[in-house]
């Protein structure tokens, strides 16, 4: 009887590892195999599928069209097989590794608290955090590098499921020496004439701000863009620029008198933090456990 499948989990593991390291020898080390065994597994996979999966560039291997197509699907198969093995091995349901992508604000102010709480209750659950902007978190989910994401704002990709976690707010801030710092209210005209330093395009903070000014300010004078929030805070505190940042990120600087939160009644910059994951992913008890704990943490904070 002819075999139904023309590849093995071992071959897929080798393929994914080579795709991530661009090297057969490095992949072999990661998988505790000899280089010749890894090369053989890749050759067998390509033979079974009837397609080459890599292009060689010097000593490095780069995915070709077929390799790019296979990579996320192979990662999904390997992830599902891991869940099956854990289940039938009689392991505790809440055990294993959960890869979580979080945007910078969430990682800086919330993620460590969630991980610390889960460590106490579920010591066999290992959270593997990756800090990126919202755009990169979504890309990680779609590429199966992440199992769960926490982003600032809404995701419009139809392949992504999402659930609101908690509410947050952005504020426009100025240094105490800035001409607008003494005004009771700052209108759109004054905002449009100011110079700005902002988070980079692709970040959730920038997306919310762009949405708030859309149709109200035609052209903004953006002087610099940075992913590093402390750099933005330092530039604003120096007095020449305005910025729009999460209240949580600038709260201490405002209390210390280094920054002033401007009253901008024409801008609505409330937003939500959302959990996101692939719609086509299977039930994942680790993901559900993480979300449930984070939701309880947010509820407890509201009730303080």
TrEMBL record:
Originating organism: Agarivorans albus MKT 106
Keyword DNA-binding attached: yes
MF (Gene Ontology): DNA-binding transcription factor activity; transcription cis-regulatory region binding
Keyword set, alphabetical order: DNA-binding, Transcription, Transcription regulation
PROSITE patterns: HTH_LYSR
Name of the protein in its database record: LysR family transcriptional regulator YeiE
Domain of life per record: Bacteria
Keyword Transcription regulation in annotation: yes
Residue span, HTH lysR-type domain: 7-64
Family according to the record: Belongs to the LysR transcriptional regulatory family.
């Amino acid at each position: 009887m002819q075999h139904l499948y023309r590849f093995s989990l071992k071959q897929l593991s080798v393929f994914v590892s080579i795709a991530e390291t661009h090297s057969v020898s490095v992949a072999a080390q990661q998988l505790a195999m000899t280089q010749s065994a890894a090369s053989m597994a890749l050759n067998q996979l390509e033979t079974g599928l009837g397609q080459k999966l890599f292009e060689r560039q010097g000593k490095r291997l780069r995915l070709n069209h077929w390799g790019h197509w296979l990579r996320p699907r192979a990662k999904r198969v390997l992830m599902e097989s891991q869940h099956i093995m854990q289940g039938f091995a009689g392991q505790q349901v809440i055990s294993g590794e959960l890869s979580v992508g979080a945007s910078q604000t969430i990682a800086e102010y919330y993620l460590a608290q969630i991980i610390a709480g889960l460590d106490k209750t579920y010591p066999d659950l290992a959270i593997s955090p990756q800090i990126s902007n919202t755009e990169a978190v979504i890309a990680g989910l779609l590429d199966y590098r992440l199992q769960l994401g926490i982003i600032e704002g809404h995701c419009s990709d139809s392949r992504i499921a999402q659930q609101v976690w908690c509410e947050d707010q952005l504020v426009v801030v100025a240094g105490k020496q800035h001409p607008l710092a003494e005004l009771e209210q700052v209108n759109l005209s004054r905002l449009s004439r100011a110079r700005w330093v902002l988070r980079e395009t692709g970040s959730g903070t920038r997306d919310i701000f762009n949405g708030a000014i859309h149709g109200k300010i035609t052209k903004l004078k953006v002087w610099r863009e940075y992913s590093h929030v402390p750099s933005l805070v330092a530039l604003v505190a120096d007095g020449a620029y305005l910025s729009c940042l999460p209240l949580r990120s600038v709260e201490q600087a405002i209390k210390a008198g280094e920054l002033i939160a401007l009253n901008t009644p024409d801008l609505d910059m409330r937003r939500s933090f959302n959990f996101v994951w692939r719609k086509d992913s299977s039930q994942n008890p680790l993901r559900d456990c993480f979300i449930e704990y984070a939701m309880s943490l947010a509820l407890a904070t509201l009730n303080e």
